[in-house]
Amino acid sequence: MTLINSLLMLAQQSGAATGASGASGQAATGTAPEHSQAAIEAAREESAKAGAEAAGRQEVSLWRLVQQLETLEIVVMLILALCAVYAIALLFEKVYVMRRASGQTRDFLAAFRKANSVEEAEAIIRKQPASGIKSMFDAGMAEVRRTQDLGLYTMRDARDHTMQRVASAMSTRQNDHLEDLGSSMTFLASIGANAPFIGLFGTVWGIMMAFAKIQVSQSTSLAVVAGPIGGALLATAAGLAAAIPAVLIYNFAAKQISKQASKLDDFASEFISLVSRDMDRRAG
Q1: Is residue 21 assigned to a domain?
Q2: Is the pLDDT of residue 51 over 50?
Q3: How many domains does the chain have?
Q4: pTM
Q5: What is the radius of gyration, based on Cα positions, of the chain?
Q6: Closest CA to 152 of 279, 284, 272, 276
Q7: Burial call 41-64: b when 16+ CB within 10 Å, e when fewer
Q8: Residue 199 sits in which domain range?
Q9: Is 264 a domain residue?
């Protein structure tokens, strides 16, 4: 009996040890998946956070580029901005001046061509408003009056000299009028020719600063050089923004001045022809 009891007790102890070992294994097996799942979730959160930060760093706006400009680049941008504003202001001024001059010339010629003599032309033109073409008429008429006062108006020998003096006086007034129309043209040409180079200077300086930052940070990452290079290219864009309107306005004004000059030349020829016919009529 004692032997049998001893064997039963040993079997019970062995079963209890086996159950405890199984329970411990089940507990360990249940905990491992829980820890693994938590680690995966944490990694996902870190990855999402890093992606959001990277996206924030890559977001670029015009204002951010302006904020990152160097002092010299800001000076370049201010110069180009002033040039662009002045060019746009000249656009409105030139359009107004050219249209007014064209209208005055058209009305003047319509009135002048109704005259059949110098005196009749003088009476008609006296009612016209002041303009560049009227100043030409006044200068030519003044020479005619001086010739009449000298008693040379009816002399055929003095005809060529009279025509030369009249043409010279009218040409002087014509040049003055065209010079007034062409005011600021030199400045427009300077903006159109030099603004891209001013912007290019700012671009070169910005790229130099980008290389300097690469040397300091010892990194060629886009986050390091994107700002300086973006600001450098912004200077080039500003140079073009100032130059393009200036060139367009210059071409527009030059074409209008050329048209006005042609009309004034035609008027001078018509006036001299009128004076010549009048001299022939009076000379008999």
Answers
A1: no
A2: no
A3: 1
A4: 0.69
A5: 46
A6: 279
A7: eeeeeeeeeeeeeeeeeeeeeeee
A8: 68-283
A9: yes
DSSP secondary structure letters along 72-109: HHHHHHHHHHHHHHHHHHHHHHHHHHHHHHHHHHHHHH
pLDDT, one tens digit per residue, over 125-151 is 988 899 999 999 999 999 989 888 888
227: which residues sit within 8 A by CB, 6+ positions away?
60, 64, 65, 68
pLDDT digits (tens, 9 = 90+) for 17-32: 444 444 444 444 444 4
- For the four alpha carbons of 47, 49, 55 and 57, in that order, the dihedral sign comes to negative
Does residue 8 fall inside a structural domain?
A: no
| Two structure tokens written together for 166 | 């009249």
Residue 44 lies in a domain: no
Tokens of 140: 């030519």
Matching residue, tokens 């005011």: 183
Q: What distance in Å separates the CA atoms of residue 238 and residue 248, rounded to the nearest whole number?
A: 16
Distance (Å, whole) CA 215 – CA 163: 77
When mean pLDDT is compared across 52-56, 102-106, 116-120, 269-273, the lowest value belongs to 52-56
3-state secondary structure of 183: coil
Q: Which two tokens stand for residue 150?
A: 């000298």
